[in-house]
Amino acid sequence: MKPIQAGLLGIGTVGSGVFHVLQRNQEEIRRRAGRGIEITMVADLDTARAQAVVGEGVQVVNDARAVIANPDIDIVIELIGGYRIARDLVMEAIAAGKHVVTANKALLAVHGTEIFEAAHRRGVMVNFEAAVAGGIPIIKALREGLTANSIEWIAGIINGTTNFILSEMRDKGLDFDVALKDAQRLGYAEADPTFDIEGVDAAHKATIMSAIAFGIPVQFDKAYVEGITKLGAQDIRYAEQLGYRIKLLGITKRSFDPATGALKGIELRVHPSLVPARRLIANVEGAMNAVMVQGDAVGTTLYYGKGAGSEPTASAVIADLVDITRLHTADAAHRVPHLAFQPDQMSDAPVLPMSEVVTSYYLRLRVADQAGVLAKVTGLLAAAGISIDAMLQRPAGAGAETDGERGVPQTDLIILTHTVREGTMNEVLAQMQGLPTVLAPIVRIRKEELA
Ligand SMILES: NC(=O)c1ccc[n+]([C@@H]2O[C@H](COP(=O)([O-])OP(=O)(O)OC[C@H]3O[C@@H](n4cnc5c(N)ncnc54)[C@H](O)[C@@H]3O)[C@@H](O)[C@H]2O)c1
Ligand SMILES: N[C@@H](CCO)C(=O)O
Ligand code: NA
């Protein structure tokens, strides 16, 4: 049989990896797919660079629409990125009856509903393994391997750039900015790295996983998003002293009413989290990703590997090409549904507001070092029914022995709490912040036991 022909839109970090791996392993891939897979046309704005990557045998154009219009091409691979042009091109490729492979989590988290509906109507596949945790086959695990389970929660380190930055800061004492530059140089960061450091990229990926795990539409606009830019080095240190590591986690979870047992909705959130240092996931370092999935039948499973970079991401893109090649002639009923659940079987369970999330907390308060302060702080927690798990008091550090303006001696109080509703915690934090003996904005980091 003739090889299936694919057209590539965008040949940067990931696109060049796809081209090279497909070429290097073409014989094995052909034996697995049952048919050869060839990239016969490439579009990139920088045609000279693109031509240098693919050599003379492959047609290079600067207009992505020329690839979509080519009748010999059955699969369009979108590796441009971003929401705007990529959305139009993917929709046009679907309308033209092409299957699509994309690594673009931003696109799917925001426009996924529209894209999957269009693909379903047109009878084509949109595959996106590379969009979540790069080379780790997590989409396949969730959609196929774990299909027997009622998924209870997913928690993952799903942004390589921020995990790399946190590791470099902790291990080598590097400054945030230096570590970020290194992550950009290594090809981990998004075109706009604020997406990485502000938690947006992780939230895109968590949004996609929430849809697949719980059969809800992709709803990025409902996600709670907090990045690592406000994390202080001293919090990383204090967390260690208490037996925890701080990781940027993407979390999605079914939440039940404790009184009735009824499903309240779905938690969907990204924020720095304290994780017990003894957990495997707490020891995932550098640009590596790891995703924990808790299913009712299988229990806890963990997926670990490279979540970013040229060839690791290419590995996932090519797996999608192979799946499409195998299923090309099968009708929609025989394919794996885009979001794991059949399109007419989606749930309308709401994504919960952050105030309804129940979790535990790390609090750091800069307080006046005087009698009765601790009692006031813990009194507010007690009045709200919030129980304390552990506590530290530490000197405020060199140069911070006294409060600048008022000259009051000061100290740091670090408190770990047991679980409480976030809305309740917010009220207590507002009261604490109002105490005259609390001298600086209170630091609050959520804590996940992941058990
Ligand atoms: N880099 C990674 O590790 C990684 C991992 C997983 C997913 N992704 C995703 O993969 C996608 C590509 O990322 P990348 O790192 O390869 O980006 P990149 O910037 O290295 O490559 C994008 C390429 O698209 C080209 N391009 C831009 N506009 C174009 C247009 N209108 N028509 C044709 N070509 C155009 C650029 O010239 C560039 O060569 C993004 O959606 C990204 O989020 C990247
Ligand atoms: N910028 C992303 C690339 C992989 O999606 C990361 O750092 O994880
Ligand atoms: Na993946």
UniProtKB/TrEMBL annotation:
<feature type="domain" description="ACT">
    <location>
        <begin position="362"/>
        <end position="446"/>
    </location>
</feature>
<keyword id="KW-0028">Amino-acid biosynthesis</keyword>
<dbReference type="InterPro" id="IPR002912">
    <property type="entry name" value="ACT_dom"/>
</dbReference>
<feature type="binding site">
    <location>
        <position position="105"/>
    </location>
    <ligand>
        <name>NADPH</name>
    </ligand>
</feature>
<feature type="active site" description="Proton donor">
    <location>
        <position position="205"/>
    </location>
</feature>
<keyword id="KW-0521">NADP</keyword>
<dbReference type="GO" id="GO:0050661">
    <property type="term" value="F:NADP binding"/>
</dbReference>
<dbReference type="InterPro" id="IPR005106">
    <property type="entry name" value="Asp/hSer_DH_NAD-bd"/>
</dbReference>
<dbReference type="Pfam" id="PF03447">
    <property type="entry name" value="NAD_binding_3"/>
</dbReference>
<comment type="pathway">
    <text>Amino-acid biosynthesis; L-methionine biosynthesis via de novo pathway; L-homoserine from L-aspartate: step 3/3.</text>
</comment>
<dbReference type="Pfam" id="PF01842">
    <property type="entry name" value="ACT"/>
</dbReference>
<dbReference type="InterPro" id="IPR016204">
    <property type="entry name" value="HDH"/>
</dbReference>
<dbReference type="InterPro" id="IPR019811">
    <property type="entry name" value="HDH_CS"/>
</dbReference>
<dbReference type="Pfam" id="PF00742">
    <property type="entry name" value="Homoserine_dh"/>
</dbReference>
<keyword id="KW-0791">Threonine biosynthesis</keyword>
<keyword id="KW-0486">Methionine biosynthesis</keyword>
<dbReference type="GO" id="GO:0009086">
    <property type="term" value="P:methionine biosynthetic process"/>
</dbReference>
<dbReference type="InterPro" id="IPR036291">
    <property type="entry name" value="NAD(P)-bd_dom_sf"/>
</dbReference>
<dbReference type="GO" id="GO:0009088">
    <property type="term" value="P:threonine biosynthetic process"/>
</dbReference>
<keyword id="KW-0560">Oxidoreductase</keyword>
<feature type="binding site">
    <location>
        <begin position="9"/>
        <end position="16"/>
    </location>
    <ligand>
        <name>NADP(+)</name>
    </ligand>
</feature>
<comment type="pathway">
    <text>Amino-acid biosynthesis; L-threonine biosynthesis; L-threonine from L-aspartate: step 3/5.</text>
</comment>
<comment type="similarity">
    <text>Belongs to the homoserine dehydrogenase family.</text>
</comment>
<dbReference type="InterPro" id="IPR001342">
    <property type="entry name" value="HDH_cat"/>
</dbReference>
<dbReference type="InterPro" id="IPR045865">
    <property type="entry name" value="ACT-like_dom_sf"/>
</dbReference>
<feature type="binding site">
    <location>
        <position position="190"/>
    </location>
    <ligand>
        <name>L-homoserine</name>
    </ligand>
</feature>
<protein>
    <recommendedName>
        <fullName>Homoserine dehydrogenase</fullName>
        <ecNumber>1.1.1.3</ecNumber>
    </recommendedName>
</protein>
<dbReference type="GO" id="GO:0004412">
    <property type="term" value="F:homoserine dehydrogenase activity"/>
</dbReference>
